[in-house]
Amino acid sequence: MPVLHERPRWRDTFISLRIYNYRLYVISQLIANTSGWMQKIATDWLVNELTHNITLVGVTVFLQFAPVLVFGVWGGVIADRVDKRRLMMATQSVTAALCATLGLLTILGIVEVWQVWGVALLLGLVAVVEGPARSAFVNEMVGHGRLRNAISLNASIFHLGGLLGPAISGVLIALVGSGWSISVNAIAAVLVVVALASMRVRELRPSPRAERARGQIREGLSYVIAKPTIFWPMVMLAFVSTFGMTLPVLLVSFADTVYQTGATGYGLYSSAAAVGALSGAVLSTRRMNVRLRTIVVAAGLFGLALILAGSVSWEPLFIVFLVSIGVTRLLFATGAESIVQLSTNRVIRGRVMSLYSIIMLGGQALGGPISGAIAEHLGVHVAMTVAGAIPALAAIVIGTVLARTGRLRLRLQLRRNRGPFVIVRRASGA
């Protein structure tokens, strides 16, 4: 699927920022993502401090993402029917109230694990409608022509927040405790509401709203299954999100029990992965096209990087592999989301992206307790290796299926200006 007619100049790497509404949105999202990572680091560490049980940290992840598994498809229907900007303003207002409450309880020293889990569950319910609305709203700000660039920029902002947030949160936790890292996210949510309210509404390109009708969820499922450029990235995403995207749960254990670096080390490890992810996001803006095979290869390399990280015991080398995990994860994530969004009709995009969110967030909800339990009983090195081995194996299987379906094969070539292998179509009857 071609996304650019020619490779962009470096000054056009983030060309979508020339749009006022999107520029305002990006600034607010940089603040929100940084504070969101701060809250996540603080919440995970808070549960670890209260329970000293890595499995219960995984339960916290599960509670935050479980609502998407149960109600995610209805969230997509809602996003297709309503004004997405106003919906996001409402969800961010609720997020501000929840984070302020949890932060205050933590600062006062009266927080209990059930309260942390309750807020995590409610934030998960907010994500049910906010996730698909946010994905579809990007197109309304930038249009179809700059959508690919905006998706890569969104990933850059998300992981730049992942670079700054854990480092800031690690320092705050060490100095004043987890409560302040959580409270900052409440302020950031308010700033997002202000940014959305300040947009030039006349410059938006509203998506056609879906009329109320029976069978809209079934229509979305049928649409996904019928299009290979949507179906296969989602299948690959299921394996990557369930096993490979539970890295925060594992990093808690690496910081606490393996390298014994505490909250500061947890922030350092998360930041290392985010540095790689930011690099991957910038590289993804240089892509001329998006292919199914490049998505599968990126997923396989991501799994391999996790296996290598799980096999070492020297901290500097572990950090190097965390950077490679970030790069390959981002190349997979931006490629998968790009090909799904660019393949989807605007009127049904909310439902498609809700299914995408169900797979990504729901996979993390299931994978969090699984990875936590493996780390608890078999060791975190084994858990990290399993987290990489399953996506890598899935990439091999899916790649083989796609190759057989498309009658493709690898051919050795000796041209210097290209790689040693090229993929070609087998002749009929071969």
UniProtKB/TrEMBL annotation:
Its main location: membrane. The chain crosses the membrane at residues 20-38, 50-75, 87-108, 114-133, 153-176, 182-199, 230-254, 266-283, 295-312, 318-340, 352-374, 380-403. It comes from the Bacteria. GO terms for cellular component: plasma membrane. InterPro entries: MFS_dom, MFS_trans_sf, TM_effector. It holds the Pfam family MFS_3. It is found in: Cell membrane. GO terms for molecular function: transmembrane transporter activity. Keywords: Cell membrane, Membrane, Transmembrane, Transmembrane helix, Transport. It is a multi-pass membrane protein. Residues 222-430 form the Major facilitator superfamily (MFS) profile domain. This is MFS transporter. It comes from Lacisediminihabitans profunda.
